[in-house]
Specification:
- The protein is mostly beta strands and 388 residues long.
- The protein has a domain of 119 residues: Tachylectin-2, Chain A (5 Propeller), CATH 2.115.10.20.
- It is built from 5 helices and 21 strands.
- A hairpin with a 7-residue loop joins strand 15 and strand 16.
- The longest helix is centred in the N-terminal third of the chain and has 28 residues.
- The chain is globular and about 95 Å long.
- The N and C termini lie far apart (75 Å).
- The protein binds beta-D-galactopyranose (GAL).
């Protein structure tokens, strides 16, 4: 008899504990963000710091999809062991993990083998084919950053799985539209870093000439789709000295062969593009690896330029201008349903513990038709309403 009562009590205790645990889980699951806190830990709806570095946003209907590099802990996290992750959100604050959209391969015959480097993935939707197309920067396993390839993958569903197509150098055998091959006929190749004429030769297109047959280098990159559906691949090329903007083919799966050089010898990285009131804007970083540096901005009437430099878009303290709020640009996207409302996405890298990299999201403002960025430790989308 006594034994029964104690068993019941035990059952009751277990039940109470379960209710408590359920309550606590529920409370945590309910935790919702209603603002952005740039640079802070940003948890997904499972309570785990979002793992989508060097990312980009794809808008489908009323939903945002955030693609990015899924990093692992430590310095090892600077190589890709898992793949490209994807999250979704309807409000931009709260993100649900949708898993790995493009997994790294175990198969050693695949270029996409784990331990190679996949960076800055961007995804666009092709209306004609009904497919989602992902492009990324790809470096081959064990070769540091020497390969300088861009990779492509495709999927019927936005969250994947994406089928890897291939990785390659860009525009082999084709001269850029804005470079006259004749003018380089007599040029002696750059002899190395110490070549006293290196700067002039770079500007004149020596690396384009060097890589003409094998294809141009492609490292930090982004994609941009124009209102008419024309898509562009924008990348740091020519040993990171010059940006190349290339038109994609109609199905977005390859390059069309039409491309231009932008800011030859300007050493721009981390390009992010947006269009507002018919003008194209670009924000980039300088070239200091994982360490932050001053951002740059530019404007053009056409994607193929000419691009005009607008200087550092950061407004704030000297330190903020010098380090772009300790971050490096990765993407700029429009807020659904708003006019003139764009969010600047940047990474605060942590190469010692890659998984702990932080996200710096700030609103783009305009000052004399120039896009500018100011620090705000906490902000929300009502920012854009108060600016109207
Ligand atoms: C940065 C670049 C990153 C990554 C890093 C490696 O300049 O923007 O995406 O490639 O260099 O050092």
């Amino acid at each position: 008899m006594n034994f029964d009562i104690s068993l019941n009590r035990e059952k009751k205790n277990i039940l109470q504990l379960m209710v408590l645990l359920f309550g606590v889980t529920f409370l945590f699951a309910q935790k919702q963000y209603a603002s952005f806190k740039p640079g802070a830990i940003w948890e997904d709806t499972d309570g785990i710091h979002i793992n989508a570095h060097g990312g980009g946003i794809t808008i489908v209907g009323d939903t945002y999809y955030w693609f990015g590099e899924h990093k692992v802990a430590g310095g090892r996290g600077n190589q890709s062991w898992v793949g490209v992750g994807v999250y979704f959100s309807k409000d931009l604050y709260n993100w649900k993990n949708e898993g790995i959209a493009l997994p790294m391969k175990k198969d050693s015959t695949s270029m996409l083998i784990e331990g190679s480097v996949v960076e800055r993935p961007k995804v666009i939707f092709n209306k004609k084919t009904g497919k989602y197309v992902m492009w990324f920067h790809h470096e081959l396993k064990g070769q540091g950053y020497d390969a300088a390839l861009t990779g492509v993958a495709v999927s019927n569903d936005v969250t994947g799985p994406y089928e890897y197509i291939s990785s390659f150098r860009i525009n082999p055998g084709v001269w850029p539209q804005n470079l006259d091959a004749e003018s380089l006929k007599e040029m002696v190749p750059i002899t190395g870093r110490e070549d006293p004429n290196r700067k002039e030769k770079v500007k004149a297109g020596a690396f384009i000439k060097r890589d003409l047959e094998i294809g141009q280098m492609s490292r930090d990159m982004t994609l941009f789709v124009d209102d008419d559906g024309t898509a562009y691949h924008i990348t740091a090329s020519e040993e990171n000295e010059t940006l190349l903007i290339s038109k994609l083919s109609d199905d977005y799966l390859s390059l069309s062969g039409d491309y231009v050089r932008v800011f030859p010898g300007g050493r721009n990285e981390a390009p992010a593009i947006f269009k507002n009131d018919g003008k194209y804007y670009m924000i980039t970083s300088g070239l200091t690896g994982w360490a932050p540096n001053p951002a740059r901005s530019a404007v053009a009437d056409n994607m193929f330029g000419p691009w005009k430099s607008l200087g550092n878009p950061v407004r704030g303290t000297e330190e903020e201008k010098k380090t772009t709020f300790k971050s490096q640009s990765t993407f700029i996207f429009p807020v659904i349903g708003e006019k003139n409302a764009f969010v600047f996405m940047a990474d605060r890298w942590n190469p010692q513990n890659a998984i702990d990299g932080r996200y710096v999201w700030l609103p783009i403002e305009f000052e004399d038709d120039k896009p500018i960025i100011k620090w705000d430790p906490e902000w929300d989308l009502s920012f854009f309403n108060t600016k109207k």
